[in-house]
Amino acid sequence: MGKILDYVRWRGDLTLDREPFNSLDAGLFAAFAYLPFDSSVKGHTLEAATKRLIQKKTLIHSDKVEAQLINLSDRYKNMRFLDWSHLSQKKPPVQFTAMTIELDPQTILVAYRGTDGSMVGLNEDVDMSYQPEIFGQSVAADYLDKIAQTYPDKQIYTTGHSKGGNFAAYAISAVSPKIQDQIIKAYSFDGPGFMKETYDQLEFQRAIPKMLTYVPEGSIFGMMLDHPERVIVVKSKMKHLMQQHNPLHWEVARNSFVMAPCLSNASRIIRSTFISWNTKIPREKREELWLAFFTALESQKITDARQLTTNKIRGAIQFSHAYLSLDPKTRLIANEIVSDITTTARQYINLPFLNHTEHLEPLGNDSSKGPIVDDSYDGS
């Protein structure tokens, strides 16, 4: 089976008037949002912008291949950047990047970037685990509102990966009904979902039919919260956590993703652990812990997650110093949370290595036809 970049190689000669925009295009642009463009791309074609990016010679190999393929593809190269926007701040934590691309004279695409590895971005991700709504979601909605009002005669797709997928879905729920009517579809690729307080709102319910989420069969991040919208499970043979999370590594055939039989045992078990953690540990305790922990990391001058992983020994020392700098009360909360997670996981510790047909009832691969998970945060 191929992957999204193979799809670009296979069918990149087919312009949108010959082969309409599809989920693989949306997945490609969700990944494209991570490329290090800046506001100078506004008004330029994708061909011109990617050529300039490649000439800088700072791209990692996989990003360079993606940029080169788009640069050479008749399907994408004449599309045009209408906007590029970025915001990063510590309080409240926001790591936000979005771009708007004119697909054809009638249609535009708003693509939201996911977490970029900065501690601000990770802090924002953690906030999602105990706050029904975070400030970055309102920034995403304001951005969509601005774009839609600037181009009132255009139809709009939104897309994003991980946190960006959450933003792509949330944004269409938070704009006016008039702007919602401009939206064709909101694509989320392994986005973490939403809390019940959010998706129970009437505005969100109105937007749900236009939301579509894809998750890999080994999804971790996408299982953090609930998904009231349609969810499709996609095949991915990748074993590494971040590779499984990356839509460029999911399997495709012709012009669509290849569906998996269901979520893996490991994915479903980890989801149960998330639910146990987020329902048994009071929200205020988790908030107290994470606020203290990120303050401690900042005191160690850690601004990027790669500082903890590039040099593992140094990273472990910095992490330990941050942990030990927490006050005793907060360390006790941290220990309670770790103990709770461990207890939940221990109940199922052998299941990921066993055949799911013998130990976990297989569920569906498309939530419109049947559940892909059998638990939720409200217990239903």
UniProtKB/TrEMBL annotation:
Listed name of the protein: Esterase
Region (Disordered): 360-380
Source species of the chain: Lactobacillus johnsonii N6.2
SUPFAM superfamilies given in the database record: alpha/beta-Hydrolases
Family matches, as InterPro entries: AB_hydrolase_fold (IPR029058), Mbeg1-like (IPR024499)
